[in-house]
């Protein structure tokens, strides 16, 4: 995929994320093809449900580039919540990152809870 096509996909993904969160939530590009979403006050179940919703929305994206439809894409998501084991920002980011890599190692296109 070219850089321009990748940029189209990143923009489409950003749009989905923006529409998929509440006003008090935070969405940002974390690096490369990774995004970070902070769902303020969400429970683990709410976070998993939202992640599944986002994963399914991304799967439905159809993009055209130079008159050709781009291949379908999938998303792997790692979820972590503030709890007794993850009680600092660094802990939560580390747990979410490990869950993301677990999702990728399990075959991608899935949500994994830390």
Structure description:
This protein has 114 residues and is of the alpha+beta class. The chain has helices spanning 3-19, 44-59, 89-105, and strands at residues 26-31, 34-38, 64-65, 68-69, 77-79, 111-113. 44% of the residues lie in helices and 18% in strands. The mean pLDDT is 94.
Note the run of SSEs as H and E: HEEHEEEHE
Structural class from helices and strands?
A: alpha+beta
CATH top level? Alpha Beta
Number of strands: 6
The overall pLDDT average reads 94
In CATH, the topology is named Alpha-Beta Plaits
How big a fraction of the residues is strand?
15-25%
Rg calculated over all Cα atoms: 15 Å
Question: How are the SSEs placed, and which strands pair?
Answer:
Blueprint: H1 3-19, E1 26-31, E2 34-38, H2 44-59, E3 64-65, E4 68-69, E5 77-79, H3 89-105, E6 111-113
Parallel strand pairs: 5-6
Antiparallel strand pairs: 1-2, 3-4
Highlighted features:
globular, 3 helices, two-stranded antiparallel sheet, 114 residues, 44% helix, alpha+beta, Alpha-Beta Plaits
Characterize this entry briefly:
With about 110 residues, the chain is of the alpha+beta class. It is about 45% helix and about 20% strand.
């Amino acid at each position: 995929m070219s850089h321009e096509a990748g940029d189209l996909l990143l923009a489409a993904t950003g749009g989905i994320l923006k529409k998929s969160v509440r006003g008090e939530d935070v969405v940002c590009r974390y690096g490369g093809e990774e995004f970070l979403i902070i769902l303020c006050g969400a429970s683990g179940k709410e976070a998993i449900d939202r992640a599944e919703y986002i994963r399914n929305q991304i799967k439905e994206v159809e993009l055209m580039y130079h008159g050709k439809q781009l291949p379908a894409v999938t998303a792997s998501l790692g979820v972590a919540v503030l709890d007794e084991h993850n009680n600092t920002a660094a802990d939560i980011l580390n747990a979410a990152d490990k869950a993301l890599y677990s999702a990728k190692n399990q075959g991608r296109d899935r949500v994994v809870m830390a």
